[in-house]
Amino acid sequence: MSNSTNLKSKYSFLLKFEDYWAIWLGAIILILSMFLFFANPPANMDKIIADSNATMQAEAEKAPFKTIAWLEASDAKAALKGTSASLAKSVSKYFTVPGSWSSDNPLKSFFLSESDAKAKSAASAEKYEKAKVATTEAKATAVQAEQAASAASFQDADLNKEAKTKIAAWQKAKADAEKAKSAAETKPYNHITTMIPLMIVLALLFGIGKHFMGESAGKFLVAFPAVFIVAALSFFIGGHEFAKAWGLEYVMWAIILGFLVSNTIGTPKWIMPAVQTEYYIKTGLVLLGATILINKMMIIGIPGVFVTWIVTPVVLITTFWFGQKILKIESPTLNMVISADMSVSGVSAAISAAAACRAKKEELTLAVGISITFTAIMMVVMPLMIKALGLNPVLGGAWIGGTVDSTGAVVAAGEILGPVARDVAATIKMIQNIMIGLMAFCIAAYWALKVDVDKSKADLKVSSAMREIWNRFPKFVLGFLGASIVFTLIYAGMGSDSSKVLIDNGTSSFLGSLQKWFFALAFASIGLSTNFRELSKYFKGGKPAILYVCGQSFNIALTFTMAYIMFMKVFPQITEKLMQ
What we know:
The protein has 27 helices and two strands.
């Protein structure tokens, strides 16, 4: 037998298992995204960044506040977005999800004609013109106030305060004008013509993996459109103005639509080859790694690490112990999946934990269902509670980021409190998400050495133990970690300004849009493959819900305590800096 044949046989497992295909598909998409953005930066990006930085530095040395010139230079940098490059626009449009709509015009979610776009633009044109005039007047007033402060060499506190007030008013007027401009420049769209090519490409990508895994690619390709349609409808329902107002996201609707099919007419057998929950979401999680950059932890610093990396494992271990010893939940795998979902980062952590401890599909479904239900409640209630208590936005954002499960829900809840709370909440959740890999390894080790260990092999050798841990470890997590490390190094090598343009406002946005589709496919699959009768046995005495409520209550209390101590008492200077 030749060496090449030996090598093929030795490494054939890399093409036969779902976890590895999640990594391969994720790697292909990541390489495409790097080519798309890094090789096609916005025109004159380097020059605009250099000129803006020079202006900002000069203005910072001249005045004790952000001058008009400083803000205009900053805006020039902010206007640079990788997604605005022509090639990136052309590709990214195929990942667009159905848009917002109201009850009187549901078709608007998928299609907006040229005549309707012109009508909408015309209706907003007058408002935009007024906003432009208001902006011009506000800037003129700001210029006068800044000139008065400058004439006094910026030594007059009252004049400086007046200038800051007028400049802030100009900034607000400009922001209002930008919103009005967006409405006044409404363009026609037809999401059907972009979703069909996306469906075909995704079907082929996932279908190739199915072929190499020894399953029928043909059956998968025939069934995939049905799952894709459920995913698209979940975006459609989630885009309704009522659903958006209450934070009822597409993930919930994907599961509900799937439930309706599977528990009424029953999911047809021919659709089942494309009902692949873990395949879709594992690939999405590999992409997620490229948006969770290790260096961004430094934005929040030590307080953020304490709020996440101390609280999270304490809550996970305590909740698992509580479920086993106090509630006496019969299934330790169900117990662990719920604990991981609630304490680490929602569905992403639940999928990883389920793979590590080999939980049943029904147990994962139950954990995800409970999580989505409580997430929808928490993302509305927590911001209202924080406002009622009058908490510092940094503290409120950290509290939300450490307790609300879904990353999207975290951002939405933080947005209610303002940009500072939103950014802190998102960063805290990002730091928490980094723990997914470590959590999966620890769960795999615990199950291999404690839960499922054969009592007759108590003297299990170290090598055998490590092999069992490796067998249980969800391999797609390696793709998640690898993507995070690679993009962190790229971010650091590019420098903060170029990275913000090409990664934060480039690859991350691009990958985030695609992730949504993968997650929608996964949640649709959960619904389509779940029968309530099969789930009923796991609801004995309502223990899973009690576990989640008790665990989340403990999580909320401990996270708040740690966030308060870290951000308000031990490191108040970091809080002050974040508030600037």
